[in-house]
Amino acid sequence: MGFKKDFLWGGATAANQYEGYPFADGAALATGDIMTNGSHTVRRQVTWKMEDGTIGTTPLCFGSQERHLPEGAIPTYVDDPKYYYPSHIASDGYHFYKDDIKLMAEMGFKSYRFSTKWSRVYPDPYSDTPNEGGLNYYINVCKECKKYGIEPLITLHHYETPLIFAQECNGWEDRKLVNLFVKYATTMFEALKGLCKYYLTFNEINLIEAAPYVAGGLIHATDQAIASAAFNQFLANSLTVKAAKEGYPDIQVGMMLAYGPTYGLTPDPEDQLLAKQMEDSTLFFADVQMTGKYSVYKLAEYDRKGIVLPAKDGDLDIIAKYTNDFLSFSCYGSHVVTYHTEGTTAGGGNGMKFGMVANPYLKANAWGWATDPQCLRIALNTFNNRYHCPLWCVENGIGWNDAFEDGTVHDTYRMDYLKANIQSMKDAVTIDGIDLMGYLYWGCIDIVSNGEGEMAKRYGEVYVDADNLGKGTFKRTPKDSFYWYQKAIKSNGEDLD
Ligand code: BG6
Predict the structure, then answer these.
(1) Tell me: the pLDDT tens digits for 10-55?
(2) Environment class of residue 194 by beta-carbon count within 10 Å: exposed (0-12), middle (13-18) or buried (19+)?
(3) HSE-CB of 243 using CA atoms within 13 angstroms
(4) Ligand 1 center to residue 316 CA distance, Å?
(5) What percent of the chain lies above the pLDDT cut of 90?
(6) Quick check: is 395 catalytic?
(7) 451 CA distance to ligand 1 centroid (A)?
(8) Which of 31, 87, 330, 371 is the best mutation target for the ligand 1 pocket, counting ligand atoms within 8 Å of the beta carbon and taking the most?
(9) Which amino acid residue places its CA nearest to atom 16 of ligand 1?
(10) Quick one: pLDDT at residue 63?
(11) How far apart are CA 262 and CA 103, in angstroms?
(12) From ligand 1's centre to the CA of 8, what distance in Å?
């Protein structure tokens, strides 16, 4: 027994990392469009202005502990060459999507996950009329997929809240976003009727705690504001599921969790407890969206911190009734935590939490992300045992500073990564009997990295000729891994050599 016949092999991108041109066709900016470029050592910054014209920047990004803009600062796009915003050019998917989808088809993709940008579809989120230009772009992307028999999977909110909400009301802390989001989601369902049947509401919803600006547009992220924003996203998610069930019965709406198994470094029970607590703090988000209930340990934590759920009458019933159809997740590797930090090196890449150290058994890339050959098998077993629901891995991949030589990239490290990860997932399917819907490789076409805002951290099986400052021809070239993945897909995961 191997992968099922209709296994959804493919790849994934996100609007702010791929499309570029956030002003095109009457669109408006989102929170990701005012984040500057950075690197492994230089944090991305959010640019802002004061009423008196003072301009400044604050690192409200992954890996930063910063949670607030200065009092009175309004997050803003600053038209000054001093600031480079990578999402404004990205991989120029806005103009290259046809070439890219053709390459995906050549690789044998059965599915392509991309995100739609709320502020492209509704530059004025209060309006009842969507922006035709923005909407048409997504209709065309779906039509192009269908031309090749590729099933689109749309993420409705991938780290992009319309900027106006960050400026006006601290983003998702404000409940008014709930109904406005459901209007946008329903617009997409209607416009893409017959073209797209799989949707995800919020990308990596749990990372609102590690990066509240990125995941929720919060410019003042107190613990209370984060809990309220998470609540509002849960409610928006359930109301979106409700809208699909009532009006579009063919549509399935999944949840999306960022997950990496957490290991305790030592057999010290304190380390094991820490690891368990970290796992639970991640799984809490899936508990709500897949079972409809807030986990007791999270409610106890809120109590201890004096956090109040902003639930109104009937809200919790909606969350309980409209749970998601499937669980999708990203998984890049695992985490190690310990109280015994002597002799260890800090590890974990972005979104580091207390006590995270490098795993002495694993090799990390230049950004500190370690490859764990067992992570997908562990992830799938964890989800299967806890939620007994359909599962879909929608992000997994490795970033590398690829060398372009002899007219291509000889990325053996990426093929090794793919081989180990697909094998791990295959073991979960064939040995543990898990029913898996599909596997989507992250950043299949080179895109700008989210954490660092640089092109140098490339994930793709297709090379894009562009540098960290958006300069280049944007020509697409298949890397060696393109042909490896093509062969793996053709054999439905049997040929991994
Ligand atoms: C996931 C995000 O967390 O990780 C993607 O959903 C992101 O948007 C991916 O690109 C890899 O992270 P990075 O920082 O290497 O781009």
Answers:
(1) 999 999 999 999 999 999 999 999 999 999 999 999 999 999 999 9
(2) exposed
(3) 21
(4) 31
(5) 94
(6) yes
(7) 6
(8) 330
(9) 449
(10) 87
(11) 36
(12) 21
Amino acid making up residue 86: P
d(CA 92, CA 99): 11
For residue 350, the model assigns a pLDDT of 44
pLDDT for 264: 95
Contacts with 484 (C-beta within 8 Å, 6 or more apart), sequence order: 415, 418
**All residues at 6 or more sequence positions from 80 whose CB lies less than 8 Å from its CB, including other chains:** 55
Which tens digit of pLDDT belongs to each residue from 314-353? Answer: 999 999 999 999 999 999 999 999 999 888 888 765 444 5
The model's pLDDT over 88-136, given as tens digits with 9 standing for 90+, comes to: 999 999 999 999 999 999 999 999 999 999 999 999 999 999 999 999 9
User: 16, 158 in Cβ contact below 8 A?
Assistant: yes
Pocket probe mutation, ligand 1, options 17, 256, 442, 448, max atoms within 8 Å of Cβ: 442
CB atoms within 10 A of CB 293: 13
Measured from CB, residues less than 6 Å from any atom of ligand 1 are: 14, 17, 203-204, 258, 330, 350, 395, 399, 442, 449-452, 457
Q: What is the Cα–Cα distance from 445 to 104, expressed in whole angstroms?
A: 9
Catalytic annotation present for 160: no
The pLDDT, as a whole number, for residue 351 is 43
Which residues, 6 or more positions from 476, have their beta carbon under 8 angstroms from its beta carbon? Answer: 96, 99, 100, 103, 445, 462, 463, 464, 465
Instruction: Name the residue of 113, 395, 455 whose CB sits within 8 Å of the most ligand 1 atoms, as the mutation to test its pocket.
Output: 395
Report how far ligand 1's centroid is from the alpha carbon of 213 (Å): 15
Over range 5-14, report the average pLDDT: 98
pLDDT given for residue 59 in this prediction: 97
Catalytic residue among 151, 160, 209, 395: 395
Q: Does the pLDDT value for residue 251 go beyond 90?
A: yes
Confidence of residue 1 (pLDDT cuts 50, 70, 90): confident
CA 88 to chain centre: 19
Q: How high is the pLDDT of residue 344?
A: 87
Euclidean distance between the first and the last CA atom of the chain, given in angstroms as a whole number: 19
pLDDT for 345:
84
- Ligand 1 atom having least distance to the Cα of 399: 15
Give the distance, in angstroms, between the CA of residue 6 and the centroid of all CA atoms in the same chain.
24
What rounded mean pLDDT belongs to the chain?
Answer: 96
| Strand order through the sheet with 356-357 | 262-264, 335-337, 356-357
**Which residue among 204, 452, 454, 461 is the active-site one?**
204
What number does the ligand 1 atom closest to the CA of 330 have?
Answer: 1
Does the predicted model carry a pTM greater than 0.70? Answer: yes
Cβ atoms of residues 36 and 57 within 8 Å: yes
Class of residue 24 by CB neighbours under 10 A (exposed 0-12, middle 13-18, buried 19+): middle
